[in-house]
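Extended Data, panel c. Modelled sequence:
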Amino acid sequence: MSRRTATLIIVAVLALTSCSANDGGDPPASRSAIPPASTGPQPTTPSAGASARPQTTAASAPAPVGAAPNRSFPVRVRKLQLSRGEDRPLPTTVWYPATGKGPYPVIVFSHGLTGRPEDYASLLTRWARAGFVVAGAAYPHTSRGAAEFTVLDLVNQPVDASYVLTELLALNRKQGDPLENRLDETHVAAAGHSGGGITTLGMLSGNRDKRLTAAVVLAGRQLLAAPFTGPETPVLFVHGKLDRTVRYADGLAAFEAVPWPRALLTLPRGGHITTGGPDFTRVVTTTTDFWRWSLYGDAPARKRLAATNNFRDDL
C-alpha cells in the first residue's frame, strides 16, 4: 500500500468512529462527518428515471425466476465460534427459518463501527422470517468492546466476510447440522450498514467475492474509489438525505459507480441510522422485497419495488 493511499484511508475513516448501530439519531453535529471522496466531482441528486450507468463487459447474471415463500417463518438464532487466525476471531450470529426445508438464500451481514450483529436483530430477524439465512460476525477490531479498536481494519473486513460466508455454506453439507441441505449455495448476498456498507462494497470491488449474486448497502460508501468487478450483481443502496456521518453525496457516488443493475432508496428525512426510527418499516419492506426479487426471482416483489416512493430504479 502506498503512503498516499494509506493517508487517504486514514482521512476517510477517522470520523467513522462515531458510527453505531444503535437505534437512535445521528451523532451530534459537533462530531466530524466523513469528508467527500478525494477525487472526481460531487454528484447531484438524481432525477426520476435518470440513468447514467456505464456499460459493463461482465457476463450477465439475471435474477432467478421463481416465487419467494408466501409465509412468515419462526426464527431460530445460533452462535458460531469462527476465527480466521489467532488474531481474527469472528464470533458469528446466525438467524434462520426454524421450519421448512428450504433451500434458503444466504446473506452475510456486516455491522457498522462500534456495532455488533445483535444491534441489528430487529432487521435481520425480519429477513430470516421472510425465508433467508442471515449471518453476521463481530469484527475483531471495529466492533463494540474490541480489545484493540482500529478503524483502519475496515480494509481487512471484506476477506473476513467472505470467510464467514464460506464457513456458513459448509454447514449445508455437514451431516446432522440444523442447516444441512437447507442453504441455497447459488444465491448468496452481502449487506452492511455504515462501515459494514464499506465492507460490502469491498466484496464487490477490490476483494471481489464472485459468489455474491446481490447486495444491500445501508448508509455506506466506498472507502477509496475502486472499480467494481466480477459477475453482474444487483445492488440496492439505502441512504438518508440528512445523514451527517456518511454524506448522501458519498453514498450516491458509490451508487453511480456500480456498473450493474442498481437501485437507490432515498429517505428524505432520514439520518445515518437506517435500521431504526420512523423509516424502519419502509427499510424492512424495501430491502425484503429486493431480496425476494434478486434471490428468489419473485415477480410481485419486483413490481412493488417499482412502485416505491423515492426509489431510483435502475434494476
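Residues 280-296 form the longest helix (17 residues). This feature is highlighted in the accompanying rendering.
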